[in-house]
Automatic annotation (TrEMBL):
Keywords: Calcium, Coiled coil, Disulfide bond, Glycoprotein, Metal-binding, Signal. SUPFAM superfamilies: Concanavalin A-like lectins/glucanases. This is Pentraxin (PTX) domain-containing protein. InterPro entries: ConA-like_dom_sf, Neuronal_Pentraxin_Related, Pentaxin_CS, PTX_dom. Residues 1-24 form the signal peptide. Residues 88-126 are annotated as: Disordered. GO terms for molecular function: metal ion binding. Its cofactor is Ca(2+).
Length: 431
């Protein structure tokens, strides 16, 4: 009987091998090996005993997998490094080709840890001319103001300086006109664009300084509130700082006169940052977005349209109860809403900056968000003004009030980076 069982066992083994050999036809180079297995042992267990030890195989597979993952990570890091280097090289080549010697750093906000210092500075001749034209227009307006002042005060020295500055402006306008003609005719002289621009900017800097010095002579004779701030360029270093902080406020009204034709976006007329919150209170129009009011980093879109190069009076009111807000332009309410940072009081002990948006307390400016234009009569109240009170401000009524939290006084503001103060009286010099 035992001999019969052994014979049957070998017959089954031979049959298994024949079947395996037939199945191997479907697997190309795959090879099946037949092994004698004792009759009382499980076939799968016997197969594992005669193969590569399981733990060793598992260990080998894990090591190979770890190696592949490490190589993949290394390749991704190298690709990212190459991408960053390529991006930097492209920007450098672009800046070198358009404005050799320019020390600005390109890029959008927070990109690769850099700040755009001159977001409005041109990358081509046409943009350069547009920027120079705006600067010249700003200087001419200041000069006309000085001329009016000198006539009223019969100042011989002011008249002589005015004539000299007018001559300088005329020379600069001729240079701009010459470069426009060069662009239209495609003259090769544009190769010296960098040198020409350097000379023009040097002259503009000198001219700006002379006008600023001349304007300083007016301060002794003008009321402290009859002035405006001018931000002629979109940079990350031109701004004004309010000397005092704001108190805790459960409601407020902020009003001002603004004049700008900057595009896209007039920038940031003001920003108030406190420790731990850079966007405690911000008014900003950035890129192609509408003007926005930010309170504790919450946003409300405002229906203002002011970048037409004319003076506009704007007011925003807000109360912490339900976050109710109203927006007024030129004395008329243009929009309102609620749920803007409800029940969040404006925090004290912060920094109030005019002309720049703060990413950190008192700094972290981005040129692409800088305000370009003129500003006057910036006032803040710790209550909601009535419709009549706002209308009085917009029409320069004798009943108009000044802010009880911050009032527009020349001695309360410090200017930096080329921003300037000069004589201005609302409603008498509008548009």
């Amino acid at each position: 009987m035992e001999a019969g069982a052994r014979g049957m066992h070998w017959k089954l083994l031979i049959l298994f091998c024949l079947l395996a050999d037939g199945m191997s036809q479907d697997f190309g180079q795959t090879q099946f090996i037949c092994t004698s297995v004792p009759k009382d042992m499980d076939i799968c267990a016997a197969t594992l005993q005669n193969s590569v030890p399981g733990e060793d195989l598992k260990s080998t597979v894990m090591q190979l997998r770890e190696t592949v993952l490490q190589q993949k990570e290394t390749i991704m890091n190298q690709k990212e490094t190459i991408r960053e280097l390529t991006s930097k090289l492209t920007r450098c080549e672009s800046q070198s080709a358009s404005e050799p010697g320019d020390a600005r750093v390109g890029g959008r906000r927070k990109e690769m840890g850099t700040k755009n210092t001159m977001g409005d500075v041109s990358r081509g001749p046409t943009d350069t001319l547009a920027q120079l034209s705006r600067t010249l227009q700003s200087l001419k307006q200041r000069l006309e103001n000085l001329e009016q002042f000198s006539r009223n005060n019969n100042s011989v020295q002011a008249n002589s300086l005015k004539d000299l500055l007018q001559s300088k402006i005329d020379d600069l306008e001729k240079q701009v006109l010459s470069r426009v003609n060069g662009l239209e005719e495609g003259k090769p002289g544009l190769r010296n664009e960098s040198e020409q621009r350097g000379r023009v900017e040097s002259t503009l800097t000198s001219l700006h300084q002379r006008i600023t010095d001349l304007e300083k002579g007016q301060k002794e004779n003008r009321p402290l509130d009859k002035f405006q701030l001018t931000f002629p360029l979109r940079t990350n270093y031109m701004y004004a700082k309010v000397k005092k902080s704001l108190p805790e406020m459960y409601a407020f009204t902020v009003c001002m006169w603004l004049k700008s034709n900057a595009s896209p976006g007039v920038g940031t007329p003001f920003s108030y940052a406190v420790p731990g919150q850079a966007n405690e209170l911000v008014l900003i129009e950035w890129g192609n977005n509408p003007m926005e009011m930010l309170i504790n980093d919450k946003v409300a879109k405002l229906p203002f349209l002011i970048n037409d190069g004319k003076w506009h009076h704007i007011c925003i009111t807000w109360t912490t109860r339900d976050g109710v807000w109203e927006a007024y332009q030129d004395g008329v309410m243009r929009g309102n809403g609620d749920s803007l940072a409800p029940y969040h009081p404006i925090k004290p002990q912060g920094v109030l900056i005019l002309g720049q948006e703060q990413d950190t307390l008192g700094g972290g400016f981005d040129a692409t968000q800088a305000f370009v234009g003129d500003m006057a009569n910036f006032n803040i109240w710790d209550r909601k003004l009535s419709v009549g009170e706002i209308y009085n401000l917009a029409t320069c009524s004798s009943k108009a009030q000044v802010g009880n939290v911050f009032s527009w006084l020349e001695t309360s503001i410090e200017v930096y980076g080329g921003a300037s103060k000069w004589t201005f009286e609302a409603c008498r010099q509008l548009n």
